[in-house]
Amino acid sequence: MVETKSVIKKVGFPLVLVSMLAIVVAEIGVGGIVVTIGLNIVMLLILIQIIAMLYGFSKSLVIFYKSEQHPLYSPARIATIEEQSES
Amino acid sequence: MDKQVGKFTSEQIVTHVIIGISIMLLFITGLPQRYPEHLGWMISTIGLSKVMFIHRLAAIGMLSSAVFYVINSMLCWIFVGNKYFKKYMLPIFPTSGDVSDFVNDVSVWGEQKTDYYKYSWLEKLSLWNDMVVNWAILGVTGIVLWAPWLFAPYIPVGYLSVAKSFHSGFAVFSLCVVLLHFYIVHLTPSKFPMAYSMFTGTVSKEEVKEEYPRWYRELSGEKHG
């Protein structure tokens, strides 16, 4: 996991920077294969975000459902904790 | 397990999911129309009529999320009172501190920790981009372009092409902000593969201490620094 994170640190920022530069260059009116690749990376990033959104939402619903099914689950206890954190 | 702190309401979570999915669909179907020479493969694969159908369907989703969020926030403010406003609405307004946070982040990127409150300037930028650019500008110009015959008697024809330029131009700006958002919630090493707080509505106290020190100090009862 630590290795993955270091890769992400090296790749993440340049990836977003390249895609944003591709948009800027395409807006200027410059064409070419590099711009096409950059814009297709943008489309890929957007697609990943849709998948992440659906995954995150369904995962949180599953967690919510499981916590309600837990034998120690008590709505009164949750309400008390929420009340304490509100104050 | 770490103690969790509430950051988002369930209404904000639902609005975020709807607006997120709709705006991504809007980008996926809108970008090939903006750059047909680079992304024309999509239109030729799916067909322009289907692309436009998905684009308009997603636009309805985005605008309905806007209506829901605005009405819900106003009702909460009216019925719950200033406590709701102070806890969930006030922190999203830009302050002069955001400018200094931005300057600090840009000048010493990654070297010095910025003393964020509940939301960083980048999070606020994403949110206000949604409200001002996506909901207001893209929403209004999109409606005009969707049904130009409705507006033709009231506005000069030349304004329709202005609306088109505004629509696609601001969409590109919005896309750049969304890409920055992608970076902070997916590609930041501490968040990879994704930040779940927008779905659970909570963040751990450890994370608050690490990333939002000023908010943490307020939660622990310390004075603002």
Write the layout of secondary structure elements.
The complex is a heterodimer of chains A (87) and B (225).
Chain A: H1 2-28, H2 33-69, H3 75-86
Helix pairs in contact in A: 1-2
Chain B: E1 4-6, H1 10-34, H2 36-46, H3 48-80, H4 82-89, H5 96-107, H6 121-146, H7 148-151, H8 157-187, H9 197-200, E2 202-204, H10 205-211, H11 213-219
Antiparallel strand pairs in B: 1-2
Helix pairs in contact in B: 1-2, 1-3, 1-8, 3-4, 3-6, 6-8, 10-11
List keywords for this structure.
A: 87 residues; mainly alpha; 3 helices; B: 225 residues; Fumarate Reductase Cytochrome B subunit; two-stranded antiparallel sheet; 11 helices
Quick summary:
The complex is a heterodimer of chains A (87) and B (225). Chain A is an all-alpha fold.
CATH superfamily of chain B: Transmembrane di-heme cytochromes, Chain C
Strand segment tally of chain B: 2
- Assembly type: heterodimer
* Largest sheet geometry of chain B: 2 strands, antiparallel
Helical element count of chain B?
11
- Measured as a percent range, the helix fraction of chain A is over 70%
Task: Sum up the overall morphology of chain A in one term.
Answer: elongated
List segments of chain A where confidence is low: pLDDT < 50 over at least 5 consecutive residues.
none
The number of helical segments of chain A is 3
Structure description:
The complex is a heterodimer of chains A (87) and B (225). By secondary structure, chain A is mostly helical. Chain A has helices at residues 2-28, 33-69, 75-86. The mean pLDDT of chain A is 83. Chain B has helices spanning 10-34, 36-46, 48-80, 82-89, 96-107, 121-146, 148-151, 157-187, 197-200, 205-211, 213-219; strands at residues 4-6, 202-204. A two-stranded antiparallel ribbon of chain B has the order 1-2. The longest helix of chain B has 33 residues, at 48-80. The interface between A and B is large, with 39 and 36 residues.
